[in-house]
Amino acid sequence: MIEELSVKDYILFDEAKIDFRQNMSVITGETGAGKSLLIDAIAAISGGRISRGAVRKGKEKAVLQMILSGPSQEVIDLLEENGFDVEDEIIITRIVNANGKSRMLINSRATTNAFVSSIVSRMVDIHSQMDTIRLMDPNLQLSLLDRYAKNDALKEETAKAYANLRAILAKIRKLKNETFSDQALKAITDRLNAIEKARIKDGELEALEKKIEKAEQIQAAFEGMSEALYLYRKEGGIQDLLAQASGALKRNETEDGFGQQVSDLSFQIQDVFERISDVKNDFFAEGDSLDRMHEREYRIRQIFKENGGSYAAMLETQKDLNEQVDRILHRQDLFDRLEKERKEALAAYTKLASRLHQSRKAVVGELKSLIEGHAKDLMLENCVFEIHFDKKNPAADGMDAIEFYASMNPGQAPSPLRESASGGELSRLMLALKVVFQAENGIGTLVFDEIDTGVSGKVALAMGSKMHALAEEYQVLCITHLPSVAVWADDHYRVSKSTDGDTTTTHVAKLNEDEHFEELAIMASGGADAKSVESMRELAQRVRHG
Description:
6-stranded antiparallel β-sheet, 20 helices
């Protein structure tokens, strides 16, 4: 549920904070006061779009925050999988700068709008007039039906089977459209031969580059090695001079042993120069090898360039070229094999699509009874609800084209929702649908943004009663302009607007009992005189206690 909603420097708000409870909270206020701004704030914190105008004029940033509690195990798992520490509360913050850029945080840690949306959508459902329009979309209606029938796993299987069928059909189309000449076959086989002849190994290019780098370093040091060896070996060079020095000292050797020390030093230096000579000789031995390495490097790069740019892409190209050769040389055999695969894939898909159809059909009667029952509670006594099935071409979600139909009057044949109800009737039917389908998705908070548009009087009372009944199982937040709905509030918040001539500010306040009935009186008659207030008290007593 939403424990707290707070906004700072947001559009017309300086600062506002609402502590919600697990009940039915109603938000009212004059038209233009900013009631819907609070719902917009919830949507923005939930990962929705937000405009540059979200920051209050003259301020650098707006801060919107929502504290959620009671996450489901699914939400906890999703948070933990993405590295978030799961606590009793989930604090979601959105900071919007005046330039329109924004940051999203969960428990003070940066995240993305999409991830926040995936979390909040599992905890909060916002229903606005636009959602009423969306509920007329047959595709959404199919999703609702599948959710009620618990078809998620079966739909996934069906989608996989459809993807397999499409892949096979694509291969058949490709094979039918391909025409190859002898020259085309030769070009393909030449490319294949070049790849196979190159015998390139995985990682060979990287290893070759390292070997070339090392050889080039040795080549760069070659001149220094040659000069050092010359100075050491030439007549009268380092080697001869060390031998002469050692001999001179040994002729009159003292107990200090200088002659022997020079002799030992001479052997050490000799060892160093022998190693230098070995490296130099190896370089000469591999002199042609460096050229060959460059040639090999060039060849590998050329093969990669012609076949996708990498070793993995070359293998994929090689596979594709082999398949092309196979299609050319064994075209009819391939047609026969693909046709067999198509029949098998179609049979597997059809079987799953049929199970999906049967699963959907199985819950239609139960859905019809539930929706019509809730519709009658909302004073749609003659409502008839049906789900019409038509067959469509194979698709990822099966072969059912469904649409919700309804009739509101006796003797009237059911027709699609968008054609069957007036504005007020449609609002009530949408609430009935919401009640039924909401029970199946694990959401804990329902937000209704003026869902009561187009109704009044007893009908509005019925809608308020239905939302209040929902509040026994869910947290319900409702924006309304009708006293007949607001009278059902457990908590009542009033949004108002003030101005000092230069700036306009929106305020939100929780009403006490007396203020609650005064606000209802103003909503009903435009004034809060004693008679009007008492009338609202009597209405509340009547609808709450009979």
